């Protein structure tokens, strides 16, 4: 494992890009095979139906959420352990209005699994965005794209021809929806928080940013290595149940004085490199520290570039075996 030592955080030794090993099935292998074979065709049928025509029908937000909860229910994702900063258990109904993401707010979510996007869509019906380490601008993506990006290699730059906008523009165009940002830009195994992209810095100063941490039990349904479709489906569908641990932090505001909502200013930042002012770094640190605290993990000094290097090394090693 010495060849992978450079992909561990120097301070903590955390390796956020390694797949989480699964527990052997042992004597339960026949049960696991039966569950997998029973659930797989049902899951694929519902997913294909939803993304081909159901999401286009005028069934409203509640209809779409019900369909997505059905998708989550098939592999046994029924138990949701939800906690919200500043809200005592049993008092959620009286405190939820201001402490939960709602339209015209930003959700800064951890990113470990395709289930992240499915869960957020089933709860908040938000707009999803893609982030890149070379720009503060972003662009809207579909729910299906957000799911598939969890299986894809990260990208340092947006695809050619992509129309990039600041978050402020998306908020203006879609005032009745929350907007999801995955500030790490790529998936991890859930054992560390990567260096953030700067997309959150295009948030208007009065807009609430809600850090949300999603963690899973068992943890083997995370997808830190791209292309692991079959492994993910087996781990997801062969286990009787899964639990999602959801933690929502106190809202954060973009208090950096140098951030503007105009595209001209943002493009100017893009041209000057990815440096940030102390005030901007403070905003990103607040969100990053919240995600680390909620997930009971540490922030690491690794990002998209290091993951791309890791994938190249990992792929070459697997080909030699």
Mind explaining what this structure looks like?
- There is one protein chain.
- With 321 residues, the protein is an alpha/beta fold.
- Helix content is 39%, strand content 13%.
- It has helices spanning 29-52, 60-73, 92-99, 114-124, 143-149, 167-173, 229-237, 263-271, 278-295, 304-320, and strands at residues 77-84, 106-109, 127-130, 139-141, 179-181, 192-193, 209-217, 242-248, 298-299.
- Strand 3 and strand 4 form a beta hairpin.
- Helix 1 (29-52) packs antiparallel against helix 2 (60-73), helix 1 crosses helix 7 (229-237) and helix 4 packs antiparallel against helix 5 (143-149).
- The longest helix is centred in the first third of the chain and has 24 residues, at 29-52.
Q: In terms of per-residue confidence, which ranges show pLDDT below 50 for 5 or more consecutive residues? A: 258-273
The dominant shape is: globular
Number of strands: 9
Q: Encode the helix/strand succession as letters.
A: HHEHEHEEHHEEEHEHHEH
Share in β-strands: 5-15%
Strand order of the largest sheet: 1-8-7-2-5-3-4
In whole angstroms, the N-to-C terminal distance is 14 Å
Topology at a glance:
Layout: H1 29-52, H2 60-73, E1 77-84, H3 92-99, E2 106-109, H4 114-124, E3 127-130, E4 139-141, H5 143-149, H6 167-173, E5 179-181, E6 192-193, E7 209-217, H7 229-237, E8 242-248, H8 263-271, H9 278-295, E9 298-299, H10 304-320
Parallel strand pairs: 1-8, 2-5, 2-7, 3-5, 6-9
Antiparallel strand pairs: 3-4, 7-8
Which short descriptors sum up this protein?
globular, 10 helices, alpha/beta, seven-stranded mixed β-sheet, two-stranded parallel sheet, 9 strands, 321 residues
